[in-house]
Every structure is written in structure tokens, then in C-alpha cells.
Automatic annotation (TrEMBL):
Residues 171-326 form the YhcG PDDEXK nuclease domain. The keyword Zinc-finger does not apply. It comes from Selenomonas ruminantium. This is Predicted nuclease of restriction endonuclease-like (RecB) superfamily, DUF1016 family. Keywords: Endonuclease, Hydrolase, Nuclease. GO terms for molecular function: endonuclease activity; nucleic acid binding. Residues 14-146 form the YhcG N-terminal domain. The keyword tRNA-binding does not apply. Pfam families: DUF1016_N, YhcG_C. InterPro entries: PD-DEXK-like_domain, tRNA_endonuc-like_dom_sf, YhcG_C, YhcG_N. It comes from the Bacteria.
Length: 337
């Protein structure tokens, strides 16, 4: 490669990055502008229909739609105007709208009837940079209801993290975890290492399923105690909680020995692996089946150690299966008007 070719290649690379950067900023500006104008339209329509009968509102939206469509095109159909009105009603505070979220994101969020769940998905989506497809997956698998802090259970759970003002550990633990992306096929030759290998091969999807703030640290982390070696299946670090997260995988039902082993791992990390400023580690026993009584009585009344037993589902469950697993009586999705 001669000098001209080398310089042209370098300049091409720099120009290419500049173009991509500007394209991204333009696209983001367009998305933000679209969200803002749709909110304004929704606000105006809702105020015009406020206190009026349903037939009045339908007629008004049909007429406004016809006029806007004639001038601006098909983006202002009756169905779209109805969505814009619903958008305003779901998100009445204009200043709380997130520039990171597109209109597609907001349309999905509008399907969530529970306002707390809706806010959870919006916050997590913006913070973690979820695509619209990932947001849809999180909603349809009830990620909010699978978060331990939202569940009513008799199992012993630590309520808060170690530092004042910090988010509770329970806000970052799910039960169950949905691992359909591993594409595991049931087999009598199925081993824990198959799950572990699947997680490593689909690490990005697993990190999304874990939630916000997780980063991968190690696989089969060896610790030695007086000449005996032990191996922790997976180690992560959560930069929001500022702590290590240790995960052990179990094929069958969780046993008291599994929890005791995790207790040892957590105690070891607490004593030997924490850096200055780190909080106490979390231990998660990820199992195919749970026995709440075993977890409860193994842990006893000890609230000083953050250990959880969570079930994993290696397939995409149906809504009915998830409702049964989470003891939900009603779907947390909004009904179409």
C-alpha cells in the first residue's frame, strides 16, 4: 500500500465515523421530535374530548384524522390519533419523557396497565438501552413481576442493601429467570455445564435478562481453602450495587447443601475479594425447581447474608405458565379501547 492509499484509507475511516455519528444524532433528534409532537397532539385531543361522550370523541378523532391525513399523510390515521391520546394519558408529565425512547418503545409501554410496572420498564429500557424487541420480551415475560422486590413471599429476603440510600438488592434479583435464548434441548445427557456454556455463548442476552448494571467477571472461578479447590460457576459484578454477584447452576431442585455451599462462596468473597468501596456480595443459586421451605429454614433468621434461590425456565413460557408461576390473577397489560 503506497502513501496515498494509506492516507486515503485513514481519511475514509475518520469521515465514515463522522457521518455515522451525525446520522445517529439526526435519527435521535427525529425520534425525540416525533415523541414530543405526538404527546402534544394527544394532549390537545384529550382536552377536547374531556367530559364528552364516547361517540363525540370518536367523531372528533375521525374528522381531525381526515384533515391531517389530507395534508400530512397516513401517519395521522384514526388509530394513530387514538394511540397519541392514550400516550398523553399514560404519560401526562411531558418533562418526564425520555429522549432515549422512541415512539415504538412508548407504544409498547402503553400496553402496560400498571403505572408502577410501566415506569419500571421505561426506566430500565432507557438506562440499559433496550431495543424495542428486547422491551417487548421484558414486558411479555413479566420482568417487573419477576423482580423479587415486587413479590409477596414467605421466603427470607434481605430488604435493603448495605449502603444508605442505595437501591435494595431485591430490586436486582429476579425469580424466575427466563433463558429461552439458550435454545437448550431436553436430554438425559443434560448437564449443568451445558447451561453454563449456553450462557457464555449468549452472554449479551443473559446480561439483559439479569438486569441493569451487570458485567461478566469469571467462569468456573477457583477458590482454594486449605488445599481444597472449589469452583464458582459464574461471577458477575454489578456497578450500581457495587458488589460481586456469584451464581451457581443446579439442574434439579435446590437442596440445603446448595445454599450452604453458596454461603461459603459469599463469605469467602466478603472476606477476601472485596475492593475498597465494595458492598457485600450476592449469591444466587439458579435451579430448575425451588423448595421454599428448604430455602427458608436453611437460611433461618440470618439477614446479614444476601443469598437467593431463583428458578430458571429454559424455554419461553406461555402467559398462563408465567401467571401461575408468579401467582398473578390478572395480566398487567392494558386492554384496547
Amino acid at each position: 500500500m503506497n502513501e496515498v492509499e494509506k492516507v486515503s484509507q485513514d481519511i475514509y475511516g475518520e469521515i465514515r465515523q463522522s457521518i455515522i455519528h451525525v446520522q445517529h444524532r439526526v435519527q435521535q433528534a427525529v425520534n425525540t421530535g416525533m415523541v414530543q409532537i405526538y404527546w402534544e397532539i394527544g394532549q390537545q385531543l384529550d382536552k377536547a374530548c374531556d367530559g364528552k361522550q364516547d361517540e363525540y370523541g370518536k367523531g372528533l378523532l375521525h374528522q381531525v384524522s381526515a384533515k391531517l391525513t389530507a395534508e400530512f399523510g397516513k401517519g395521522y390515521s384514526y388509530a394513530n390519533l387514538k394511540n397519541m391520546r392514550q400516550f398523553y394519558r399514560c404519560f401526562p408529565n411531558r418533562y418526564a419523557l425520555r429522549s432515549d425512547l422512541s415512539w415504538t418503545h412508548y407504544r409498547m409501554l402503553m400496553r402496560v396497565a400498571d403505572s408502577k410496572a410501566r415506569e419500571f420498564y421505561a426506566e430500565e429500557c432507557a438506562a440499559a438501552g433496550w431495543s424495542s424487541r428486547e422491551l417487548e420480551r421484558q414486558i411479555t415475560t413479566f420482568a417487573y413481576q419477576r423482580t423479587v422486590s415486587q413479590q409477596k413471599t414467605t421466603e427470607r429476603r434481605p430488604q435493603t442493601a448495605t449502603d444508605k440510600g442505595m437501591a435494595p438488592y431485591r430490586d436486582f434479583i429476579r425469580d424466575p429467570y427466563v433463558l429461552e435464548f439458550l435454545e437448550l434441548k431436553p436430554s438425559p445427557e443434560f448437564y449443568e455445564r451445558d447451561i453454563e456454556q449456553g450462557i457464555i455463548e449468549h452472554l449479551q442476552q443473559f446480561l439483559l435478562e439479569l438486569g441493569r448494571g451487570f458485567s461478566f467477571v469469571a467462569r468456573q472461578k477457583r477458590i482454594s481453602l486449605d488445599g481444597d479447590d472449589f469452583y464458582i460457576d459464574l461471577v458477575f459484578y454489578n456497578y450500581i450495587l457495587k458488589c460481586f454477584v456469584l451464581i451457581d447452576l443446579k439442574l434439579g431442585k435446590v437442596k440445603h447443601q446448595d445454599i450452604g455451599q453458596m454461603q461459603m462462596y459469599v463469605n469467602y468473597y466478603k472476606a477476601n475479594m472485596r475492593n475498597e468501596g465494595d458492598n457485600e456480595p450476592i449469591g444466587i443459586v439458579l435451579c430448575a425447581e425451588k423448595n421454599e421451605a428448604v430455602v427458608k429454614y436453611t437460611m433461618g433468621s440470618d439477614n446479614s447474608t444476601h443469598i437467593y434461590a431463583s428458578k430458571y425456565m429454559p424455554y419461553m413460557p406461555t402467559e398462563e405458565e408465567l401467571k401461575k408461576e408468579l401467582r398473578l390473577q390478572e395480566l398487567p397489560l392494558a386492554k384496547e379501547e
